[in-house]
Amino acid sequence: MERSQIWSRTIRFGAIAFAFALLFVSASADDVVVLSEDNFEKEVGQDKGALVEFYAPWCGHCKKLAPDYEKLGSSFKKAKSVVIGKVDCDEHKSLCSKYGVSGYPTIQWFPKGSLEPKKYEGPRNAEALAEYVNTEGGTNVKIATAPSNVVVLTDETFNEVVLDETKDVLVEFYAPWCGHCKSLAPIYEKVATAFKLEGDVVIANLDADKYRDFAEKYGVSGFPTLKFFPKNNKAGDAYEGGRDLDDFVAFINEKSGTNRDGNGQLTSKAGIVESLDTLVKEFVAAGDAEKKAVFTKIEEEVSKLKGSDSRHGKIYLKATKNYLEKGSDYAKNEIQRLQRILEKSISPSKADELTLKKNILSTYA
């Protein structure tokens, strides 16, 4: 009976802790205040002015606005006199009906101490919304901008960057007023971030409305237009793939020989050289007397390699030497050690280095 009661208490405590953790994560992950019938009048119409977006989850225009609205929320997070909020009208129909919402997104400003809103009719971007809130709320907040990994091209830098024969370059030709370009922007930034550690891959964009000569030269007639300029073809190839993060990542991996996932981490294929993998399997299977002969073959193969394969070949050589000196358990023990380090907080470049070693060692284990 006592054991049952203890077990019951443990489960209840665990459930409460999980719910609290989930609530904390939800609150900290979103700088826009999520409003409902329960909290609307506690957050709005009090001692702060409030900008409220009434939206529907399925609405295309709402999805397009979302990154700008989140940026707005982040920028005004510390403003003591303003609330940036949103209401899901699918979930809270009566609240949206109360404020005359008939289309999505509808953005309304509620002055301090008032539940009588003014409809926002301006442009739907973070900068314009911030200017409006600053005017209505008496604040002076600037939009927070995170450093970008997308290389911004101009007429002075285009040729230097794009026509560099040591780089594979993906270029987005865009226009600032283009809705599809705005929708693509957060995805394109993630692509650039995923490949930021690849020295010979560049993710770039060009304002083709401003630099129209380049748009004309490369046959750009609509926005966004994406072209890939590989090392061996600086005339440029049209990118006709999908426009999700995974589509772009798969394309770059295929064309540039990289092995990244959408988070920028190396995949299990990174560092693997097929010709050396074949020899390593022969090495592991060989008897003690034959191992040195196979090691010589590995040395010869590594000497023929170039570029990144040459760098990876040196890891194969070192691993083979350690295998000879430390025995067959070396690879398994070293993989476990590297995995423990990878699970700690380390720099992305260090994670790359250890992942390459771990991938190559897996052939020896």
Automatic annotation (TrEMBL):
Recorded catalytic reaction(s): these are: Catalyzes the rearrangement of -S-S- bonds in proteins
Q: Which residues form the signal peptide?
A: 1-29
Q: What is its EC number?
A: 5.3.4.1
Keyword hit for Disulfide bond = yes
Coiled-coil intervals: none
Which InterPro entries did the record assign? ERp29_C (IPR011679), ERp29_C_sf (IPR036356), PDI (IPR051063), PDI_thioredoxin-like_dom (IPR005788), Thioredoxin-like_sf (IPR036249), Thioredoxin_CS (IPR017937), Thioredoxin_domain (IPR013766)
Q: Name one GO biological process term.
A: protein folding
* GO CC terms of this entry: endoplasmic reticulum
Superkingdom of origin: Eukaryota
Q: Can you give the residue ranges of the Thioredoxin domain?
A: 11-138, 140-257
The GO terms this record gives for MF are:
protein disulfide isomerase activity
Query: Which top class of enzyme applies to this chain?
Result: isomerase
- CDD domains, per the entry: ERp29c, PDI_a_ERp38
The alphabetized UniProt keywords are: Disulfide bond, Isomerase, Redox-active center, Repeat, Signal
Q: Which PANTHER family does the annotation name? A: PROTEIN DISULFIDE-ISOMERASE C17H9.14C-RELATED, PROTEIN DISULFIDE-ISOMERASE LIKE 2-1
Task: Give the family, as the similarity comment puts it.
Answer: Belongs to the protein disulfide isomerase family.
- NCBIfam families xref list: pdi_dom
What name does the UniProt record give this protein?
A: protein disulfide-isomerase
Q: Which organism is it from?
A: Lupinus angustifolius (Narrow-leaved blue lupine)
